[in-house]
Design brief:
A 6-stranded mixed sheet has the order 2-1-3-8-7-6, with helices on both faces. Strands 14-13-15-16-17 form a 5-stranded mixed sheet, with helices on both faces. Helix content is 39%, strand content 27%. It contains 12 helices and 17 strands. The protein is an alpha/beta fold.
């Protein structure tokens, strides 16, 4: 048994706003053990939304829509659900009364177009919305359930948590939970990481998935069980198997960031860090500043002309000079230099009481992604230095 989310709104397709509703719904469905297989977005077009819902009903047991329940002409989800399920729209008197009462409580006059919000597909289960003017509804179609929620995040969250999830648990007899845990790794590419754990990625429960970011790779573990304790046990067992193979690359779990972990390791050793970055867009500095750890003393952010692109330049010598300059200028224990030479070569070096560590890298370009990858590898260099893992 699985669910599908259908988000509506042309603003989503234009990139004007981000789809945060799907993220929230996906996480909450995990809590009741309902798998989510698809997320689809459609613009404010009655025919296209109806087509998407029809397709969803043919492949999913539960279809949750968000958006398009307002009073304006472009709010057409009600009509689209009615079309997809072969039902006429009817006005629900109780919903109309609740909408009128909502406006009266706030001292506003309800306009005529708000009456549209009391219309739902014939035979649908009406759901009053106590935190907004957009009532919701559930259509129990022979092919599956269609649950229509508002697009306003606050209203959607309230209705989902207080009405829809309890309904789904009772209606579908759901008794399991889905929990996830993400292992954060750095210093290894996605393909290299995959080669080490490929057999574990075929596990049906818990499941394993990879998500690559510049210089970092997330390993997501998902477990489905009768309760949270059993799910945690499955997660613990799989995490142990993963750590047995890739532990040197794992820097944190779930909400941990590489910046916060590095600063924590430094603080535990009563050490401080200063950075010098060249042609790296300030990415390394920004990340450390946002982590706001007491071990970070500051940065020297320098433009590309500081180094230039002379192919004969001695990068290790430049890096050690920059790292020591940062240490001395900012009164830090460790100096970290990151030099981005774009498609030629880049260089990172850390020096201080724990010794010296360095690495040469090559990137395909000289853009933000390259700067982010450089920052990740530089931070991982310091992390490994703190843990005594550098060669």
């Amino acid at each position: 048994m699985h669910a599908e989310i259908v988000t509506t709104g042309t603003e989503l397709l234009l990139g004007v706003i981000s789809d945060t509703n799907s993220t929230y719904i996906a996480r909450r469905l995990q809590s009741i053990g309902l798998n989510l297989y698809y997320i689809t977005s459609a613009g404010d077009n009655r025919q296209r939304i109806a087509q998407v819902i029809d397709t969803a009903l043919n492949r999913s047991d539960v279809v949750i829509t968000t958006g398009g329940l307002g009073p304006t002409v472009d709010d057409v989800t009600r009509e689209a659900v009615a079309d997809a399920t072969g039902r006429p729209l009817v006005t629900d008197p109780h919903l109309l009364t609740s909408i009128e009462a909502f406006f009266a409580r706030r001292g506003y006059t309800m306009t005529e177009n708000n009456r549209r919000q009391a219309q739902i597909p014939q035979g649908a289960i009406p759901l009053e919305n106590p935190v907004g003017t957009a009532p919701c509804f559930i259509v129990e179609d022979p092919r599956g359930l269609v649950i229509s929620l508002p697009g306003v995040p606050g209203e959607m969250k309230y209705m989902l948590d207080h009405v829809v999830l309890p309904y789904l648990q009772q209606k579908l007899g759901l008794s399991q939970v889905i929990k996830t845990r993400t292992l954060r790794t750095a210093g290894i590419g996605e393909s290299a990481l995959d080669a080490q754990i490929a057999d574990l990625e075929t596990s049906p429960n818990p499941t394993i998935g990879l998500a690559a970011h510049p210089g970092r790779v997330d390993v997501r573990i998902g477990a489905k069980a009768a309760n949270e304790a059993e799910a945690d046990k499955l997660l613990d067992e799989m995490e142990a198997r993963l750590r047995a193979r890739i532990n040197p690359y794992i820097f944190g779990i779930d909400e941990d960031t590489l910046e916060s972990i590095v600063l924590k390791l430094l603080a535990e050793r009563s050490l401080t860090l200063a950075v010098a970055e060249v042609a790296a867009g300030g990415v390394l500095t920004d990340g450390l500043a946002q982590a706001a750890g007491i071990a970070f003393c500051g940065s020297l952010v320098l433009p590309d002309r500081y180094i230039g692109y002379d192919t004969h330049i001695d990068l290790p010598a430049e890096a050690i000079a920059l790292a020591n300059r940062a240490r001395e200028t900012l009164h830090a224990d460790i100096g970290l230099a990151a030099i981005n030479r774009g498609p030629d070569q880049s260089y990172i070096l850390a020096v201080g009481p724990l010794g010296r560590a360095e690495r040469t890298m090559r990137f395909r370009g000289h853009d933000l992604v390259a700067c982010q990858a450089l920052a990740s590898y530089a931070l991982d260099l310091v992390r490994r230095m703190c843990l005594g893992q550098n060669e």
